[in-house]
Amino acid sequence: METGFSLDKRLVEDTWAVASLPLCEVLLAKDSRFPWLILVPRRAGATEIIDLGPEDRDLLLDEIVSASEALKAETNCDKLNVAALGNQVSQLHVHVIARFVGDQAWPGPIWGHGEAVAYEPPVRDRLVERLRDLLPDTQ
After folding, report:
1. 57 phi and psi angles, rounded to 5 deg
2. CA Rg value for the chain
């Protein structure tokens, strides 16, 4: 990890580690209702995509595409939502969320919709393993 980089406490509490890509830590949100990856660039102090240099911005986009492809392949979702919000966690992170027509929040956003439902450990472990297999260049 980059010197001075650490995951925001809320990200640590709300996710499981999936993989380390060249730029980002890839995390799985602890809500089984919505298969949901979070990519966190290992750049201390970054809060916005514009805080990254040109090479890191390009790499971030490549890693978003890789995470999106992996999540789509694993879930066969109807839609992928990709967002870089920072209203509650200012550390730069990008959400990649698998959405399904008729899911609990469809067609609206997932935020603020109901309570998270924990993964059963074997289901979570299998999902994490499959995603790791689908992601390129994991470290």
Report:
1. -65, -45
2. 14
Q: Any idea which residue has 């492809």 for tokens?
A: 69
Question: Considering only CA atoms, which of 7, 13, 19, 2 is closest in space to residue 137?
Answer: 19
Q: What is the identity of the amino acid at 101?
A: V
Structure token digits, residue 40? 């966190």
Cβ atoms of 38 and 11 within 8 Å: the answer is yes
Does an H or E element contain 112, and which? none
Cross-strand bridge partners of residue 24: 41
Distance CA 23, CA 2 (A): 10
Yes or no: say if 85 and 97 are a contact pair by the CB < 8 Å rule.
no
Instruction: Read off the amino acid at residue 86.
Output: G
- Ordered by where they begin, the domains of the chain are 9-134 (3.30.428.10)
For residue range 65-122, list pLDDT tens digits in order. 999 999 999 999 999 999 999 888 999 999 999 999 999 999 999 988 889 999 999 9
